[in-house]
TrEMBL record:
Composition-biased stretches (Acidic residues): 293-304
Highest taxon of source: Eukaryota
Name of this protein: BQ2448_3048 protein
Originating species: Microbotryum intermedium
Annotated stretches, region: Disordered: 1-22, 119-142, 276-307
Record field: compositional bias (Basic and acidic residues): 128-142
């Protein structure tokens, strides 16, 4: 066979495909590329909200965004993701609409949606999503450093280690990403009052709240440094979300894993025992304890405790 017709010299045939080819998503190597691109589709509004929260945290800002739904009178429905940073003495706050989500199916507000920038006119138009928080008029204060790709996994346990707000900002990003990767596909909420509490919003088959949580307390009154006082690392909730899509995984994979060690500091023995009992009740069906019955002379004809028998039982319980 001549060189012109040899297999090495022949062009490769075009690949044969059947059906729609699965889209391949590139690995995210720049924190600014975590932001969703207008026009892209996502499996659910909650996944898109999570992506925007993670992108905000990776930029070094608090993830102050929420999801509000409002059905329009048209054939489709929309949801809105809004920034909800309150005014403080040091910042003007923010109530901007960050994105408008258009549902693929108006009757399924939890299904596939497409992200669009909110309509703005003329000079009132604000910059793109990735520039929203850093814009001089956004009203946002940076609380942490930019989370770079390929950072080391984070380990957390109760103890005297002091964490700054920047550390907690990073902890929140890792916890949110790790819990969505988890087989339970959990949703993490953060409550900021005197303490900072990370909790799972999931529930088990008995409608009991998930026990997963992280609690950090201030090192002193008014301090902006914290120590970890409580960790419950295991989810007790039922899976509530489908496995992450390939699109979502490109965002989740940007953040390293978070390793939690169970522990509890600063509570009395009584409070600890109550917590253990609550955990056991959540993991095992409740059993009714047998009722002690006194001697025959203290019972009536139907086997119900008489007044004297009931009094004896009470005396035993309080003795």
């Amino acid at each position: 066979m001549s060189e012109a017709t040899s297999p090495e010299a022949m062009p490769s045939p075009a690949p044969v495909t059947t059906g729609k080819a699965e889209k391949v998503y590139e690995t995210v190597s720049d924190p600014q590329k975590l932001w969703p691109v207008p026009g892209t589709r996502w499996d659910s509004p909650k996944d898109l909200l999570l992506v925007m929260q993670l992108a905000t945290l990776a930029a070094g800002y608090s993830a102050t965004a929420n999801l509000a739904s409002r059905v329009t009178p048209t054939a489709t429905a929309h949801a809105f993701i809004r920034c909800i940073e309150a005014k403080t003495p040091n910042s003007g706050g923010c109530q901007s609409t960050l994105a408008v989500l258009q549902y693929a199916n108006a009757k399924n507000p939890h299904g596939t949606c497409r992200v669009q920038l909110p309509p703005k006119a003329g000079k009132s138009a604000k910059p793109s999503l990735k520039d929203h928080h850093s814009h001089p008029d956004s009203g946002h204060l940076k609380v942490g450093d930019v989370i770079q790709p390929n950072e080391k996994p984070m380990s957390l346990e109760v103890g005297p280690t002091v964490y700054t707000l920047a550390d907690i900002n990073k902890l929140e990003a890792y916890a949110r990403a790790d819990s969505r990767r988890d087989p339970h596909n959990a949703v993490i909420t953060v409550v900021r009052s005197k303490d900072i509490l990370f909790k799972c919003r999931g529930k088990n088959e008995n409608d009991d709240a998930c026990l997963w949580q992280i609690r950090l307390t201030p090192t002193s009154a008014g301090a902006k440094t914290y120590t970890c006082k409580e960790i419950e690392p295991d989810h007790t909730c039922e899976p509530a979300h489908p496995a992450p899509s390939a699109h979502l995984n490109t965002v989740l994979d940007y953040f390293p894993s978070l390793y939690l060690k169970q522990g509890l500091i600063g509570k009395s023995k009584l409070q600890q025992s109550r917590k253990i009992q609550k955990q056991q009740q959540a993991k095992a069906p409740r059993k009714r304890a047998p009722v002690e019955v006194s001697d025959d002379e203290d019972e009536d004809e139907e086997g119900v405790l008489s007044d004297a028998g009931l009094q004896q039982l009470c005396d035993k319980l309080v003795s």
